[in-house]
Amino acid sequence: MKPRKYKSIQIGNLLSQITPLQMDKTKNKMELSARIEGLMISKGWTKSQFAEKVDKKPSEITKWLSGTQNLTIDTLTEIAQSFGIPLSALFGSREIQVVYKTPEIIVHAPSRKMEIPATALVTNQYYNYKPREYAPINLVPVNYNFSKQKSRIHNG
Amino acid sequence: MVEFSGRQARVYSIIEDDSEVTLFEQFIEENEAKFKDEIDDIISRLYQIGRNVGARHSYFKHNEGKPGDGVCALYDNPDRKLRLYCIRFGMDILILGGGGEKRVRAWQDDLILSKSAKKMIHYAQDIQKKIDSGDIEF
Q: Are residues A102 and A145 in the same domain?
């Protein structure tokens, strides 16, 4: 069974009634929250840690990241300051490279099992300020050298 | 659903055997007259999820179903009245269900929400089984 394409006249009509301005407002709120979450992850902070930095409850952070909030300049200033970036950087279109720190990654190679040290970093190369929730599963070691403590891992 | 699906996420809904329309369209039909603004907001957000931002974990309320089944609700502020149930498979796949007006805190206490949530829990289990057996592929 394969899901099939489905076109809904009803939803098409509703979408056509939404003004470009309204759609832009939604888009900006959702993109901004994604950007804030990306920064939070790139700092290695949990929601609770982020909440502590900005002196809020974790439930407030959940709201901020939900993409539904109309955040004020004051709140955005607090957020930017906690990340150590200027306010304008929250709105930039520059890609954020998210780095996941993993305690240990075990890669199953055809001939042997290799343990990659805790210092290994998995970089997320192509997500446009959209970090995945988990590290990519296809990890291919490149030029892995057992004598060295660091190795590069490419997203498969 | 071609109206929502895009490069960031594919958005689906479910047509039951005895129905001509999807669960999501039924949800719209039942609530559009009373909550037009909220329906517009939900439609805009789903459009953005499919086209621009993906079905990020933070855009949903979780643990609406059974542990690990992916049943969740689109995030709704306390002042909002509507709840929409979905099944989420990572950031890329979202299956829209039904929902209704939030009159009580827990869905278990409301007949309409309870029916919608239970339906999605049932479909989540069924879909997972079919994915595991290879009967469904996305």
A: yes
Tell me the pLDDT tens digit for each residue of A76-112. Answer: 999 999 999 999 989 876 544 444 444 444 444 444 4
Whether A49 and A109 share a structural domain: no
Same domain, yes or no: A110 and A150 = yes
Contacts of B52 in chain A (CB under 8 A): 27, 30-31
Report d(CA B67, CA B14) in Å as an integer: 21
Q: How far apart are CA B99 and CA B120, in angstroms?
A: 10
Using CA coordinates, name the residue in chain A closest to B60: A66
Backbone angles phi, psi at B27, to 5 degrees: -60, -45
The answer for A37, left when phi > 0, alpha when psi is -120 to 50, beta otherwise, is alpha
We report the CATH number of the domain holding residue A53 as 1.10.260.40
Do B45 and A26 lie within an 8 Å CB cutoff?
yes
**Does residue A146 share a domain with residue A119?**
yes
Encode pLDDT of A102-152 as tens digits: 444 444 444 444 444 433 333 333 333 344 444 444 443 444 444 444 444
Q: Do B58 and A62 touch (CB under 8 A)?
A: yes
A87 located within any domain: yes
